[in-house]
Fold these 4 entries.
Entry 1:
Amino acid sequence: MNSLLEKLYVPGHIEYLILDPNLVILDKSPRVERFAEFPQDVAIGQDARLSFPELVGSETIVQQIIAGNTQNSYLEGITRSSQAGTPLYIDFNFERIGNNAILLMEDVTEIMVLKQSLLQRANEAELLLSALKASEDYNKKIISSMGDALFVTTGSGKIKTINQAAQQLFGYSEDELIGQPIALIIEDEQFLLEASQQKLSSQQFLAGVEVLCHRKNGGELIVEFSCSVIQTRIQGSPAFVYIGRDITARKNAEIEMNKALEKEKELNDLKSRFISMTSHEFRNPLSSILMSVDILENFADEWSEDRKDSHLQRIRQCTTTMTSLLDDILIIGRAEVGKLEFKPSPLKLTDFLQYIVEDIQLLAGSDYKIALNLSPSLDGKIFQLDEKLLRHILTNLLTNAVKYSPQGGQVDFEVRIENNWLHLTIQDQGIGIPPADQEHLFECFHRAPNVGDISGTGLGLSIVKKAVDLYRGKIVCRSELGVGTTFQVDLPLNGIPKS
Amino acid sequence: MAIISKKVCMIGDFGVGKTSLIRRFVERQFSDQYLSTVGVKISRKIVNLQHLEVDLSQEIKLLIWDIEGQTKFKAIASSYLQGASGILVVADSTRQETIEHLQDHVKQFVAINSNGMIAVALNKVDLVDPEDIEQIRKNMSFSEHQVLGIYNTSAKTGQNVDHIFETLAFKIWRQDNR
């Protein structure tokens, strides 16, 4: 049987074992031992699993083949880890032969080694691709989920990568930005220049640079950018990575906070000055009142009526001064909290001006002269004016003009209308305002040092300025020491002009 | 007691670490270098079941078939799985697609051998955050009663390597000795 098989069916390079259902060797090819793990155990009548341990588990296969349930069973490229050196690969093929099974074994080492080499390269490439894909996917997800805007540009500043946040922040689509210069987004040339100078120092980066940017729709936003340089795979060709965070809201909040702090500071200063001024300005009249009251209490019985009247007059004068001061403070206070408003109403201007001048003239007495020069075009005309604000402006300017003029001095008050503006000019020949004090003219409680004993609160011109501002008008002062002062007030007619 | 010999197979996608797990278990060695397996490479190791049950003085010789991993071009040949008492199905916990293929491998084995024991190894856990591993495990479930469990393994550190083979050997022995 052995020799017949060899002659008829089995090629020379194939070895075989003929096995019974219990895997006992019934016959074998002469050189089958070369494939056995334990060649010494290959013998007819011996269990094949002793010499070929890989046959453990093959019992069912062999029995099914002998029973005719399975035609054959093929196991490709079996090798053993216990083998040293180049592994031996064998193909196992079980087939039926009579009432037994034949296990044909063929050395396929050469082809399997070649296959291993090919598979190794293919699998390595696949693993690498898989890792790269996973890494790329991971990085893309990180970039797309970033809340900050990301731009990557070429060395020359052309945008080549952006993320979702950048599109949302600036309102451009990816197609609209790719290939465009980064200057389209970042208009700060200084920042871009500094960034480009990092070409040679890739370890450095710019951080926290606040840049005013524009959205596609023209809207402004403030973005805090950082910029770093990365080396691309092309030697000497860097890429720039810009990461920007919209800080518009934060900056606006900061500005608002600073404004509020500034306002708070101003109010505090005002309060301090008020306390300081009131304690000073109120103390003198109050002391005078107290002194006069004391004197009247102690000596009223002994004094003549004229003398008593003199003290009563002093008390009245002091009270008037304090009332005037309080009125000014109240006006300033109302302006500070926004309660002083511009409320125009029909006003016959000439009548109003004459009344004001007469009023001031009455207070000034005959030692001073106020010359009102009205443009003829004003005669009898009614204008939309805020009487209250106008009164604050004129009363204070005219009173000052009189107060700081020498005895017998004249105040010229000219009123005209031109191009829908009301021009008021008040000129005196008084003591003048030192140049250093002219820039502080409208500050509360500020008084020039050359006023001497002339009484005043330092609030009049502040009130004038606030009233002119509410009018959206203009006020200009020209003054020369010892020569005189001219105030020019220009107020728009027919309501507040658009700013 | 005589040593019992049992065939167990390692299956899974290519590159998941089947050969490394065997090498760690049999030779107590590990190499980072990837060497693809072609055909099937058979290793053997005797497991003393006393490790798992103190009173049990039984040894099992495991013939471990390291079967060429599945690729997108080639499936695992079912003929290799015939006669196996158990399998160890392996996935690479860093590669989602290998985890998704676990179920297919389990079904392939159950179709051939409905009584064989199955252990599932989530390999390379040393490369993944423990909380991610927990999430992967939560997303996995096997309805086959032959599945002994899912084991977090690392051929590099040796984590659970002996345990998974010994448990598989023990369950195979118990299956035969009920």
Note: The first strand of chain B starts at residue 4 and ends at 12.
Entry 2:
Amino acid sequence: MSADYGSPTVEHEATAGDDEAGYRSYEVYQRERVGSPPPVKPGQLRTQDYLDDPYTLLANLRHYGPSFRDWQGNAFWITHYNDVTSVLVDSANFATRSKRWFYGLATFGRDLRNNVPFLTAQAAGIDKHAPVVAREIVEAFAKRGTADLATEFAAVFPLQLLGRTWGIPDADLPVFAERYLRMQRGFRWNTANQEAGKQAMLQLVSYFTPLLAARRADPQDDVLSALATLEIDGPAIDAHDVVATLLEGDHETLHGALANMWFLLLTHPEQLDMVNNTRRLVKYAYLETLRHSTPVLSGERFAKREVERFGLLIPEGALVICSAAGANHDETIFADADQFIVGRKDLVQREPRGQYRADGLPAGITPALGTPSKFPALPVGRPRSLYAITRDVATIASHALLDATNNLQLAKDAHPTLKSRGYGELHTCWHLPVTFSAK
Amino acid sequence: MSLAEDLRKTVAAAYEVDADTASTQTFDFPLMPLGTAYDMGRDANGVPLFDPRIFDSREFQRNPYPYYRILRDHYPVYHDKLHNCYFVTRYNDIAECYFDGLGYNTIPKGSSNHVLGNTQLELSGIEHSRRRNLYGRHLVGAALTKRIGAICKLANEMIDEWFNPESGMTEYDPATGKYTMELGKAFANEFPIRVVCQVLGFPDEARDKFYYWYKYMMGGIGGRDYEQKGLMARQDLEDFVESIVEERRLKPNFLLDDEGNEVAPDIISELCKTIVDGDVLSTEEITSNIALIVGGGGETTRGAILNMWYLLLQHPDQMEAVLNNDPLWDAAFHETLRHSSSIGGQPRQNTFDVELQGVKVPAGSLMHMVDFSANHDERIFTDPEKFDILRNDLYSEKILRSGYKKDGRTNHMAFGVGPHLCPGAWISHQEGSIGSSIMSKRIKNVRIATERMAKDIDGVSLAPIGLGAINELWLEFEAM
């Protein structure tokens, strides 16, 4: 028995002689074009092929497209750069939904990330701890001469930085991290992960309840204290709000970006040499990584009302998948889009603002981080954006790595690849064995 | 151990970094042992929660029964807000809805009329029974009994081929005297098609196209991407049938017995001379009826034969009982359909606002009557997961033409009940039990050729039947 994915709604019944009586349909029949590869079938977007190499399938979607009606997944895919950015800035027509909504827990706690004291404490904490944490982590393997940069560096660094910034004692960090990761991984489609994630959220609430009371009594220099002493309308802040804030934030982009950046540098040794000789280019390598291999493949938006865009009638509430991976490889925007070119001339090297830059240059899209924003670059009274902070942190960590090693290269017989562990999850390098000589 | 090492291990475990996902595809629902309902959590009162996304999962498609058990026990009428429909899962509720042809009519969304044409599937009440009887009456009772001889002959002809080395149907090992074959290829795929072709009076060359018509028209009913292909297949069938109909209008065709006597006219000839409201049926109407027979006649019976042999061979004591007692084939056929049938359920649309099992269903809702679930309803069948041809709560005599209970036994739901009861039920029953009975008299020492069978994802055990029919069944046997 097949599930019914919702039938096309015909709102006006056609009557005889009334040609104007609207033919309205959400269905689109994708015809094969002569001389083109066969169109992607919806099921293919949920196979291992997509998890391993999304770019081939997305190139096909771009070719056939502006849009792709994935009727099995009940979603609309947008893959052209200009279309994706136009949806991402169009908050009038397209809404984001919180991770708590995906969990079915939309009323769980409050997301406090937009409060200035929180942002200030977060920025200050990251500035303070990032160099220290980076040095600690690199020193742990610097003497050894071999390391797995994906697991020992990229995966660990954001978590440890998060723990220090939030003021979680080092002794608690492994237990905290286990619950935190379970929670972050659970809001996706997989029901098993979701149940585990809900459990983790409750465990985190019971972990934070005493800690929050302690910080309220004796504020420290960390994010948790900023939350504990935050004054907002409504009931006092409790551990549920802390967990909600933690959930809606994200460390994965930094994890994935660091792993992908080193994966790309190590598999392009000439670029690595260039970056090593001109340290200023580390930042550009990071930005080009976000364009070339974004760790977060797509962002999800929901239509607020019925809109006709991209040659489609998109119903109210429809899921629009804005494929950053597809847009970042759009050949009409980026020359040699499949090439990894540090410091490429057609990628704007500043924070993306709005759909189009005044200078006409596009920025790479990384949902959760580098999405175009309609707000001014430097809001009054706020610290610099998370985009800039993350960029600087990734640069700091990479500097620490370059400072501690000589002759960094891939281990012999290593064939690292990028892949996702699950649908909608991080697309990154999970094992990156390297050899080097210690300085 | 250092903090960094602890964190590294935590991340590796959280993302299952070292697990091999290439074969199991973690993006999908995790596969689990058969018969274990996935625990989707419980509410404050301890009632299991049910997440409608499960319906889209591979795990559900592999084995839906545990999930239907949750629905039957706790949500007998389940409102699936994700797919915007209702699931009715208890036998008695489904039977009640099926018998109420006006309250729950069959004009649901995604109906079949654009591919199958104007058939009785969408009709209700008197109009429905009149259309259905146009051809349905030729498939039951005396009309069917007359054809049984020819069905037996077809089965024997096909089985003769197994022992003909040039046919390629079987592999013979002279050293052991054993034959190996795939039952679907050698018999079950083709036999129902031959019977339907014979009943319809199709010439032999139609057999080759039959599968094409069947596959694409059935696929096209689902609409969406396959609709176009379905319409093309339907057009192809129409082109084929048209000339036959014109011919039969002038000269009816008859099934002949061995002596050359006319046994019965074929269904196309019957339809050609049928008069409704003083007018003969148009070619289009005849084609629609034929399209329906083509759609219903092949795959379902094939699945029943394969599943029956698979299940019986898995239960040697029951196989033994059947071999010693020929009439038990009827019970085996019905128990197979109850235990693992091919048709999951039927959609209905309620004409009025109704309240069923305390759930208010607004008029015009899509309601899925889950036949799978009805067949495993503990309220009707004791120990429903067990395959037991000797069970005393399943009615397995001659199929009832009305009602669904007799002598304290209950019909299975695979053919449906009520006015829309499968019109091919009787002939399908004859094909399944007669075909198998004849088979069992020609071969002996049958066993499943386990080494040839498709393996489950664990690579060791046999693939489960789960939903619908088993794909292929490899048998090893000796000639009687």
Note: The mean pLDDT of chain A is 84.
Entry 3:
Amino acid sequence: MIAPQPVNLTVNGARVRRFVEPRLSLADFLRQDLGLTAVHLGCEVGACGACIVNLDGQPVHACLMLAVQTDGMRVDTLEGLSDSEAVAALQKAFHARNALQCGFCTPGILVVALGFLKGCRPGETAPSREAIRDALSGNYCRCTGYEAIVDAIERVAKAACATQEAA
Amino acid sequence: MKARAFDYRRVTSVTEALAAYAGCRGEARYLAGGQSLLPALNLRLDGPDLLIDIGRIDTLRGISVEGDALRIGALTRHAETLSSPLIVAHAPILTEAAAFMAHPAIRNLGTMGGSLALADPASELPACMRALGAVIEIAGPAGTRNVAADDYFRDLFETVLAPGELLSAVRVPLARPDIRMRFDEIARRRGDYAMVGLAAHLAFSGDVVETARLAFCSVGPTPMRAPAAESALAGRSLGPESIAAAKAALAADLAPDDDDALSAAARMHLARVLLGRVLSALGDGPQRAEAA
């Protein structure tokens, strides 16, 4: 019998302290122990991107991280990013452009897109569609063919890069 | 799938890591970025009894110039390799290669040492290390040893690392004005495994190639040097004739197998196309459209 180990971390701004089995992935920990079901599990090998969350501010696959590894770290799931309205503009653009169908991949894509858009500030050149596709290369969507997703992200990127006058 | 149960121990020094490995009664694995190890565990391709988390060992971090080499710590993330000003200045081929490695979220966790310890023949960094003439620094119970990249890779996913040894850093000779280097690859989609990749490192004397180091990935069990093509370039200026000679010589260097993804002939063809493309880009003259 392998003993559970303590883990202390910050999830969506709240301190969390649990004992976890070492083999428990961060994704299963977030879903099952904390009920954060925006973290979707598709492939569990880092290919589909549905489980991507921010770890200390950087997008990572929650299926390729052990819960026990995250001791002392900060995790933000789509729930937290949604509550803080960090992804509000993206959510609005995804809604307006119908950039989802079944929605399974959407949380991972929103987390990745949010990180990608950090580079977009007023006066910067808006990223190309190719750059957006490159940023999304680790996210599978089986419904949309990506066009609407790229459209929605492009719209937010252009708005973020627009100067005050143009906006 | 879910991983088989294992125990976990986080260590904070190389000494502690080596002791944890030595003290494990079953199978132990070092865990760094985990971007290849955790998929293998989730697929139950591997099922160790103990994971030793080396991810917080400070001495395995950092990128610094030491004498005539750039020392890159084992825990350097691919995202850092992609953005490090020191790497761009002194080993730009690694910056180019990192852009091809997996996807952004994987690059945020995957590490230099992990990639080199795994020695996936389709991986970019092992080929770069052979092209650069890097030295691999290995910590073990008897102390640290240094192994030339050409001697480090043994076979498919096999290196000279003995059980319990820990890859601690790589040392890469600093770029010089007489050296031109480039990495490129051909893959079906961005971030996919390369169908073929090439790390090329040419030292010039004036317009003449003095020495060439060419290392391919995804064409054999290890990153593959191409000695015949290298010889075809040495002592000649880099131009259409020497490039054609190198492409022709490649048949003596590489003998890829047929596999489910690609026939041996197609892979060989792509290797020649890529060699032409990379060498043309390294040449002084105007870049030619690639004639496959």
Note: Chain A has six helices and five strands.
Entry 4:
Amino acid sequence: MTLMVAENVSVRLAQRTVVAQASLSLDRGELVALVGPNGAGKTTLMRALAGLLPAQGAIAFDGKPIDVIGPRERARLVAYLPQGHLFHWPMPVASIVALGREPHSDPFARRTAQDRAAVARALAATGTEAFAARPVTTLSGGERARVALARALATEAPLLFADEPTAALDPRHQLVVMGLLREAAHGGNAVLAILHDLTLAARFADRVVVMERGRLVADGAPDMALAGERVAAVFGVEIASVEIDGARVPLLHRPL
Amino acid sequence: MSHSFRLAAALAAIVLVLALVSLTVGPAGLSPRTALAGLLGGEGPAGIIVREIRLPRTLLAILIGATLGLAGAALQGLLRNPLAEPALFGAPQAAAAAASLVIAFRFAPATSFAVPFAGIAGALISIGGLVAIAGRRASLTVTLLAGLALASFAGAATALVLNLAPNPFIALEVAFWLLGSLEDRSVDHLVVAAPFCVASWVLLASQARAFRALTLGEDAAASLGVDIARVRTLVVTGVAVGVGAAVAVAGSIGFVGLVAPHLVRRFVNADPARVLLPAALTGAALLAAADIAVRAIPAAIELKVGVVTALIGVPFFLAMIFSERRMLEGAPT
């Protein structure tokens, strides 16, 4: 089932076309990786798809155009995890994760049993219950990344957009976070993740979308989208291929 | 009884005690018993002194202290920064420049609504300019440098007003008023300031949940359904209305907005929404205490309360910079 359809989305920022005519759909149950060199417009496209930037073209969630969806309803449909796992105040982890329930609660309402259950599920899924009471600023980078993800999961939105969820994480946490995203997708959501690591993208994503200078230049199965010639043309990198778990994944070899 | 309620109740009790103490302090040397009898409708000079001199002064200290404490906490919530304070961003300075223009040139009587309106306009320009310059990322360096520039410009504008004041007596009057004081304030001042302060409380308190979401940054907050542009507009307006009105009746009183939220933040788990009420009550307590201190300290000339809050607030600010310097240097926490 298709959860999001975007057609010919263009974004202009400061007199410059950053995203040009991007068309993309997301289905329930799939993890889609969005890859591309720095400055390709990945974050801008994701912010536009999340309704955080004005864009030209048509974006629809569940068949409903984005411009007739109010901000709170949109927030219940799309959970967005920005780059950097930012936490400005040393609030306890549980309070941070509970922010994910914000789109579900009325301005003056207290948290419901449903909210508490969703927060508990998100903490459990990310293995962050153990430090639920700790100030978030005292955690390590890997722990913070999981808390940030738990916050996004707590919304229990059908769509989850994650901008570089594995950046600055140690190897083990990269695998843990990618595993959590895949779990979320295979549990019935659609997940769109911006990734720089092509190996991770090929290993975990069901589909890979390649972006270059504002345009989507490939969209398909990982081995197709990340074929050697395309990676060479888009990233200027020669890759080697290795086989893991029966799938061929690219490994960076040398710059061209 | 929730933890938040107990904290608020304890702070409210402190404010009440300070208010009662404030009614017994002054040059007339009334005993506490006489002062309280005067408050409760006693005839004669004690009743007049307490009800018409000390009570408005006390209520103004609480009103303005609460407004400044809340404005500081709200600005910190908006900018996600414990060092945000209206005075660092030139808000009271700009309000003072605009208000002193009205007072120095006798455009309107000093207790008319024209003075707070001028103050609010000045504060609106400075805080609005600052938040516009700070932009989406609200980087600390940009915010503080813009605040420094705005405060300096407001200072220059005030100097210009003093420079061009029609006569030296008016210039001196404005200069003293600028120091910030609650001395000789009447019910008229209270009536002028109260509606603006209450409006500012309502505006700022209504944005509490947005401050909490903003701990994740503006993009994540927007993705949670927070209308960032609206929050900015309402907070800028709320801070300007509160600070502008406070400056209009009491002159420039700084650093309450910095110190008050900092003192209570740890008791609310750093929650930028739950800190608002305790910060307002702490602001009220701080200003009431400072105003008691200026009357209790034996001096030939009464100290101005704005001088006292700055003398205490600036070292406090330096201590905060010292303890937060790792964060300020951009070190990963």
Note: Chain B touches chain A at residues 80-81, 209, 212-217, 219-220, 222-227, 269-272, 332-333 (CB under 8 Å).
